[in-house]
Design goal:
Length: 648
């Protein structure tokens, strides 16, 4: 059956006798390590009362692991499987709860960085300026709109200290990393605080393939804010520029000496919150994200005339304005009512040649969407209930409705039970809607859809410092867009594919003694194609799993703080999964593998001049695992980084 906000009305009677589950403070203090999340509800909410499955990764945890890329930061999080084509800088995809790689919305300080239509490459994301990451698993379109089909990954950049400088180099392939943060905080008067930080990073390497495998990435950001008794305001700017050289063809063989791809992105966010009364507050956010991309695969030499050659550059742009009012009603019911306007634009210019026949393409399209959303939350004693709905008017005049209802209950002290149902959507990409040099668009495509339900349990054992959690989910995808060539002038895209993803996420957190912490997760999921359409060149088969989704992923992460030193170790087991060999036109089975990483930060003893300097070590794939994320493409072996870190 279809799910819409109308189905939430029977819950109204329950909500009328409840008190608010949301914290009234909405401070953007992202450096505070308090159990509060904001992505799931758009207001500061205690993690224990959230009805959504949420994982928070702090900057301190990232430093302890020595994580430099977003891939390193997210690896092992429940429900997430990651795939990087080859080495650092190569295309990196995320599959959250079995969804497609464009089903997860990526936010930086509230600004979406996905291309219109959801596509995102995580290769260009590093941890240089990350204060914390919030991962919301499950449909989140009610508050976050298109692209949030299976969840949201929200990155908060550093907006205050401590200041630090770090450099490190690898034992192979000339890899080098440098990062710096300068942050300050001060108080004005008795109630106002001002804080700010500037961050930067640079990464490069020669890669591990025999030739044409260099990569580089430069990152810079600045963020700051002001907090007072009646509100707060903040701004954040983030920039990244990178280039990756790749010698591989479509089957993974190193044959090309000059192909490269690159992109630069710039995002800006400004927000302000005003507490109008003790029961009413208003918030507005403005955001802009642009991405310039380029690619080149020209003839390797004057005599190279037998292949396919191309050159292109493009730009995507997303701009949004979001306003919301948060109120506490009689009987202690908290409401959020908001409106969003977002404009998107995509431009592309390209040239290609095959068999001596050149062609050019030019593409420039834009669209504007408008949405109204509302969420109501309440809780009395051990019960929290949320219900919300969104109506989004798309660029073509059609509308799409999404809804979500969730409940969290604490039947006994220390044990929380969660359950939710919800829907989400993703708009088609511009290249699917409109004609270009390589395909004929279909302007009447419907948005892709997800209907999800889940139930979870979290308990803190009273006798030992252990927290255990389990979440079972069931997602049904429909109206997925598929490419199909029938003939000249006939549309190439259709809403035909349907699939499902069911799974179980298990978590455990242990802190037996001061300074020692361990975390373990295990995800078991089963994806299945229920309508393959025309089979997408053989990659989809009815009843078979979706490609590159492992059935099992397990992760164990241990960290130990001993005086001022930090030691950590991580083991990640990725199970077998299906892939497709497009050269041989057959389905392939990729073998399971285990990655072992370890890191250490050891203060240098001695004079006062070096007391704030620490030696850093990180070993990646120290077990020397031989594995593939994509069939035919090689991956790096062991890598050891050695560096120094200067702290406040």
């Amino acid at each position: 059956m279809r799910f819409s906000p109308v189905h939430l009305l029977p819950l109204a009677a329950v909500l009328l006798a409840a008190r608010p589950a949301h914290a009234q403070s909405q401070s953007p203090d992202t450096a505070a390590l308090s159990p509060v999340v904001v992505t799931a509800t758009k207001v500061a909410t205690p993690a224990a009362t959230s009805t959504a499955a949420t994982t928070v990764i702090t900057g301190a945890e990232l430093r302890a692991k020595g994580a430099v890329t977003l891939l390193d930061a997210l690896r092992g999080a429940p429900g997430i499987s990651l795939g990087r084509t080859s080495g650092p800088g190569s295309q990196t995809s995320i599959f959250l709860r079995g969804g497609n790689s464009n089903f997860t919305k990526i936010l930086v300080d509230g600004v979406p960085l996905n291309a219109p239509g959801g596509a995102v490459d995580l290769a260009a994301f590093t941890t240089d300026d990350i204060d914390r990451i919030e991962i919301v698993r499950g449909p989140a379109s009610v508050l976050h709109g298109s692209d949030a089909m299976t969840g949201v990954i929200h990155i908060f950049t550093k907006s205050r200290g401590p200041s630090a400088v770090a450099v490190r180099a690898a034992d192979r392939d000339a890899q080098f990393d440098a990062t710096a943060t300068v942050g300050r905080e001060m108080r004005i008067g008795t109630t106002t605080r001002v804080h700010g930080a500037v961050n930067g990073g640079y990464h490069r390497g020669n890669g591990f393939l025999p030739f044409n495998n260099q990569f580089r990435e430069a990152v810079a950001s600045a963020a700051g804010g002001m907090e007072g008794a009646r509100g707060n305001a903040g701004v954040a700017v983030s920039y990244a520029d990178g280039r990756y050289h790749y010698p591989t063809n479509g089957s993974g063989a190193p044959v090309d000496s000059n192909a490269w791809t690159g992109a630069s992105r710039l995002s800006f966010s400004a927000s302000a919150l005003a507490r109008i009364t003790d029961r009413l507050s208003g918030r507005i956010q403005l955001g802009r994200a642009s991405r310039l991309s380029g690619a080149s695969d020209l003839p390797d030499s004057p005599g190279d005339t037998a292949g396919f050659y191309s050159r292109s550059h493009g730009q995507t742009l997303r701009q949004l304005a979001d306003a919301q009012v948060v109120g506490t009603l009689p009987l202690d019911v908290t409401t959020i009512v908001g409106a969003t306007v977002e404009s998107q634009r995509a431009r592309l210019r390209g040239w290609s040649e095959f068999g001596g026949y050149p062609s050019t393409t030019s593409f420039d399209r834009r669209r504007t969407n408008r949405a109204l959303y509302a969420q109501l939350a309440a809780g009395r004693g051990p019960l929290t209930v949320e219900m919300g709905g969104r109506r989004e008017r798309l660029h073509d005049g059609s509308s799409v409705n999404t809804g979500r209802a969730g409940v969290a209950s604490e039947p006994i002290a220390g044990t929380i039970v969660r359950a939710s149902i919800g829907t989400a959507f993703k708009e088609p990409a511009f290249e699917e809607l409109y004609d270009n040099a390589y395909s004929v668009g279909e302007p009447n495509l419907r948005p892709e859809r997800n209907r999800s339900r889940e139930v979870g349990l979290e308990t803190r054992l009273p006798a030992v410092p252990v927290t255990l959690g389990a979440t079972a989910f069931d997602q049904r995808f429909r109206d997925l867009v598929q490419y199909r060539y029938i003939g000249p002038g006939i549309s190439n895209f259709y809403n035909v594919i349907a699939a499902s993803s069911r799974g179980l996420e298990l978590e455990a957190r242990l802190a037996p003694v001061r300074g020692l912490a361990a975390r373990a997760s295990y995800t078991l999921q089963r994806t299945k194609v229920t309508n393959p359409g025309n089979g997408s060149f053989g990659s989809l088969e009815e009843g078979k799993p979706l490609l590159r989704r492992p059935r099992r992923v397990a992760d164990v992460d241990v960290s130990w703080m001993l005086r001022r030193a930090t030691l950590s170790a991580t083991a990640t087991r990725t199970g077998a999964r299906d892939d497709y060999d497009f050269t041989g036109a057959q389905r392939r089975r990729l073998a399971p593998y285990t990655l072992l990483d370890a890191a250490a930060e050891i203060p240098l003893a001695g004079s006062a001049a070096v007391r704030s300097v620490a030696l850093t070590l990180r070993g990646e794939n120290i077990g020397g695992a031989r594995y593939q994320n994509v069939y035919g493409f090689a991956t790096p072996g062991r890598v050891l980084f050695v560096g120094l870190r200067l702290r406040d």
